[in-house]
């Protein structure tokens, strides 16, 4: 299957949003409150490229809660159609976009009119990774009986921070912008 086929299989943003459960509040908060900068030249350049995006994501994923709303706002402004594929249902595509050998999401694949990949973003920015890594340092080993409880507590703190700190949203936008600026 080529990327055009994957795009056609994907969920429209409203379908993805309707499937959100425990990440819905954070997702909608970011989506409703993220303000794009006045980058009209950039948005017009992206529009001229006639790009689309295939996003590998999951509704339960905290990094998706942070980054998918930013992508959607950018896409709306730049006239870019986005389709979302649940990672766990599309492992054959996910296997082509591993991060350090792992299925880390979200992954945004930018494609041209012919369905050719022209850019890839994800799964997170370096600053987001550094923030999460600080919390991961505090976790016990995975075989420790308290790991699951402490991991769940960490996830709640990280998700709350992503929801409340707009600099994470802005960093994601700037990172996506850098990728899209490289597209010929």
Descriptive report:
InterPro entries: Thioredoxin-like_sf. This is Thioredoxin family protein. The protein is α+β, with helices and mostly antiparallel strands and 184 residues long. It has a single domain (3-125, 167-182), classed as Glutaredoxin, CATH 3.40.30. 54% of the residues lie in helices and 12% in strands. The chain is built from nine helices and four strands. A four-stranded mixed sheet has the order 2-1-3-4, with helices on both faces. Helix 5 (62-78) links the parallel strand 1 (52-57) and strand 2. Helix 3 (24-33) packs parallel to helix 8 (147-164) and helix 5 (62-78) packs parallel to helix 8 (147-164). The longest helix has 18 residues, at 147-164. It is globular, with a radius of gyration of 16 Å. The two termini are 24 Å apart. The model has no long low-confidence stretch (mean pLDDT 96).
Portion of residues within helices = 40-55%
Give, in order, the helices and strands. HHHHEHEHEEHHH
Question: CATH superfamily, called what?
Answer: Glutaredoxin
Distance between the termini: 24 Å
Show unreliable segments: none
| Text of the CATH class | Alpha Beta
User: What value does the average pLDDT take?
Assistant: 96
Count of strand segments: 4
The multimeric state of the shown protein is single chain
Shape summary? globular
Q: How would a textbook summarize the main sheet?
A: 4 strands, mixed
CATH architecture grouping: 3-Layer(aba) Sandwich
* Category by helix and strand content: alpha+beta
Number of domains: 1
- Find the CATH topology: Glutaredoxin
InterPro entries: Thioredoxin-like_sf
Pfam families: Thioredoxin_9
Protein name: Thioredoxin family protein
């Amino acid at each position: 299957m080529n990327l055009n086929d994957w795009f056609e299989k994907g969920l429209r943003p409203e379908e993805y949003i309707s499937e959100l459960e425990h990440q819905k509040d954070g997702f909608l908060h970011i989506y409703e409150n993220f303000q794009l900068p006045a980058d009209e030249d950039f948005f017009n350049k992206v529009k001229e490229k006639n790009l689309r995006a295939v996003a590998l994501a999951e509704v339960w994923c905290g990094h998706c809660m942070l980054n998918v709303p930013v992508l959607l706002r950018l896409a709306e402004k730049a006239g870019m159609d986005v389709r979302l594929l649940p990672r766990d249902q599309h492992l054959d595509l996910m296997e082509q976009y591993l991060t350090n050998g792992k299925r880390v999401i979200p992954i945004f694949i930018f494609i041209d009119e012919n369905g050719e990949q022209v850019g890839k973003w994800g799964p997170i920015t370096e600053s987001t990774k550094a923030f999460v890594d600080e919390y991961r340092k505090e976790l016990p080993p995975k075989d420790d009986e308290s790991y699951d409880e402490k991991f769940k507590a960490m996830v709640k703190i990280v998700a709350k921070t992503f929801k409340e700190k707009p600099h994470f949203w802005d960093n994601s936008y700037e990172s996506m912008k850098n990728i899209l600026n490289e597209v010929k």
